[in-house]
Predict the structure.
Amino acid sequence: MRLLDEVLAAHGGADRWRQIDTIAIHQTVGGVLWPLKNAGGILDDSTVQIRVQNQHTWHRPLPTAGLRSHYTPATVVIEHDDDSHEPVETLTDPRASFIGHTLETPWSTTQLAYFSGYAMWTYLSEPYHLTFPGVQTEEIGEWHENGQTWRRLAVRYPDDIATHSADQVLYVDHDGLLRRRDYQVDIAGGSPAAHYMDDHREFDGIVLPVTRIVHPRNDDGTPIREVVTVSVDIDDVRIS
């Protein structure tokens, strides 16, 4: 069996994922990235909703109570979180707004919504989105870490899927569960990251990790564990 097929089966199976329209969660967020980007406290206690079959993400509240963000790859909108959805601020072609950014460059509210929107869509829709048109995967060599041996899956994303970087690497444990994701954050100066996933649980037929922690990554692939770039703990998972 291909490694991707094993991963899909371990996370609920492609057939179940195809039946899902939305995933909604509550998240508690931490890490040094947010104050560095002038976004401290905004996402600390928030809810996220994604549309699984295409790239839509909503964060609420963002940036303040009564407002929410609506992310798509082409446009980010800050809008009223009521039946009107009246827009307050709009950013089109959001990726282009990060040209010239370094890790220390602060973000605007719409830039924060873009980053958090594509990131949470990537995380909550994996591994299913690896089956989308244009996504290429290939099993590469094993990785040994903390007494464990993980198989690795190299991923190349097409231009129409917004994510951290076109080329990423997923690490898979002996149960077929995703345990780590490596990438470069292109919109933050290409900073390398080692992103760990833990505490996998089943929700209405699909399996998601409820603990995520991101560290900077050395050139040899090892994480810089004393620095927590981002942490995400999720609960109140709702599938529809």
